[in-house]
Specification:
The protein has helices at 2-35, 46-55, 91-98, 133-138, 157-174, 203-208, 210-220; strands spanning 62-63, 69-70, 79-84, 109-111, 117-119, 126-127, 139-144, 189-191. The chain is 41% helix and 12% strand. It has a six-stranded mixed β-sheet, sandwiched between helices. Strands 2-6 form a two-stranded antiparallel sheet. A hairpin with a 5-residue loop joins strand 4 and strand 5. It is of the alpha/beta class. Helix 5 (157-174) crosses helix 7.
Length: 227
């Protein structure tokens, strides 16, 4: 009889623990949902889109704001982190993916193979992109489409040029005087694979051009000698 009571108490405690955990998760989800800006997860009117664009990059061609993020970010923007899509995705399709709350992923910007730029999380907010809360809290994150799937994960010339223009614009508007690629997380130009050993993102092609990206952005900023 005592054994049965102990088993019953153990099962009861496990059930109570599960219920408490479930309630805690529900409260967190509800709190996050209540904190979301009213312009996320839906098409914007022309006026709303213009207001959003005015607070972010003038290079934006497409906007669909994701609910997956922290609103607002809790650190000043000091970095740029580059990712690849691991595919040749349309901006609209990636936006639809990032609109799914259960995916728990987003980026601030994306660039397609035609060089078009999308905004999914405003710069004032932290996107969920790099497997690092600390990095994403300081970084504007950019997803770049691949015109070659696999191999070096090549990106088109149009996408690469748009990436240079977007990085330069982000630096100018946020007071980043120069980009530094150090090959590790100490620089202010970082990569997804610096924070997650399970990914090759942004792929060999973009990774091989990081120093070149930093130098070209610095040249455009009028700071040719900074790395």
């Amino acid at each position: 009889m005592e054994d049965e009571k102990r088993v019953f108490r153990s099962v009861w405690l496990l059930l109570c623990g599960f219920c408490v955990a479930a309630v805690a998760v529900l409260v967190l989800c509800m709190t996050h949902r209540m904190a979301l800006p009213d312009n996320v997860g839906r098409p914007l009117s022309g006026q709303e889109a213009a207001q959003v664009a005015g607070r972010n990059s003038p290079l934006i061609d497409y906007i669909y704001l994701s609910p997956n993020g922290d609103f607002p970010r809790d650190n000043a923007i000091q970095k740029i982190t580059i990712h690849h899509m691991a595919g040749d995705l349309a901006l609209e399709g990636l936006g639809a993916d990032f609109a799914q709350e259960d995916r728990r992923a987003s980026s601030n910007y994306a660039i397609d193979s035609q060089g078009r730029v999308a905004l999914y999380v405003e710069e004032c907010n932290r996107a969920w992109t790099s497997s690092s809360r600390e990095n994403d809290g300081q970084a504007v994150t950019i997803e770049v489409a691949n015109d070659q799937v696999g191999g070096d994960w090549h990106v088109s010339d149009e996408a690469y040029e748009a990436l240079l223009a977007l990085c330069t614009d982000i630096c100018r508007r946020n007071g980043i005087k120069s980009l530094r690629f150090t090959g590790d997380a100490s620089g202010n130009l970082t990569l997804h694979n610096m924070f997650n050993s399970q990914t090759q993102c942004p792929g060999p092609y973009l990774e091989s051009r990081m120093e070149e990206i930093a130098q070209e952005v610095n040249r455009r900023l009028g700071n040719e000698t900074a790395f």
